[in-house]
Amino acid sequence: MRISQAEEMSTIASFEGFQAVSLKQEGDDQPSETDHLSMEEEDPMPRQISRQSSVTESTLYPNPYHQPYISRKYFATRPGAIETAMEDLKGHIAETSGETIQGFWLLTKIDHWNNEKERILLVTDKTLLICKYDFIMLSCVQLQRIPLSAVYRICLGKFTFPGMSLDKRQGEGLRIYWGSPEEQSLLSRWNPWSTEVPYATFTEHPMKYTSEKFLEICKLSGFMSKLVPAIQNAHKNSTGSGRGKKLMVLTEPILIETYTGLMSFIGNRNKLGYSLARKSWINHGRP
Predict the structure, then answer these.
(1) Is 271 left (phi over 0), alpha (psi -120 to 50) or beta?
(2) What are the HSac2 domain coordinates in residue numbering (predicted)?
(3) Within 10 Å of residue 87's Cβ, how many Cβ atoms?
(4) pTM to 2 decimals?
(5) 102 in Cβ contact with 124 (< 8 Å)
(6) Within 10 Å of residue 56's Cβ, how many Cβ atoms?
(7) What are the pLDDT digits (tens) for 167-224?
(8) Among the residues of the chain, which ranges form H helices?
(9) Three-state DSSP class for 160?
(10) Residue 76 has what DSSP assignment?
(11) What is the CA radius of gyration of the chain?
(12) How far apart are the first and last CA of the chain?
């Protein structure tokens, strides 16, 4: 089939009107790979990247894991905490009984299951008050009142345990009796949360040596020097069954009747009986 001259001329004309279309999309101003190659050929000198030095510095100051800052994990040692507790309890006594306060101490109570508990103790002319104080919320949680005229024996000595016991405790303490342990029920003896135990055992608070103030209010000897005369005067002035009693102060081992000690081991090791800043989430000084 022969193509006429007119058709051939029209075909040539259509190709002559064709324009090359670029595959680059509109708005794409990034140079292509070939453009990069050409730029590298035109600029033989390598470019140097300058880094700006940092003007900031991160440090831990003061180091919260060295003395004296380590003592501040106990909320009782934080500025104003003890003073607030004293004022709260003074106000409570003035409103309720009006008794004269002989002294104020911060000690560790050891319950009949060998658990440590931070306690504030007050001695008035008639009463021994044992206060569970929340040093985080700065409020009294529980207050136990023991008439001084009912106290008949105080023991001072080292802590001991039954021969088959796995539990242990170092140091010395004191135990105050206002009832006979033989009369204690079996239920209260084996109940770690019982409030019917007829005695209380104390030792010195672990923050005793943090300052002169805490050395004064955490010493057992200072507590005893006020407690014994107050009990003797209460016996003299008593008009009830306590009249004529004589206080016995004995030096002998203090027996804690626990055997496995698992509960106290976990609680005392983690200081669960204290108002304490828990630092399990802290990264131990790493920035």
Answers:
(1) left
(2) 76-248
(3) 10
(4) 0.73
(5) yes
(6) 4
(7) 889 999 999 999 988 888 888 888 888 888 999 999 999 999 999 999 999 999 999 9
(8) 5-16, 33-42, 81-96, 186-189, 212-217, 220-237, 262-269
(9) strand
(10) G
(11) 40
(12) 88
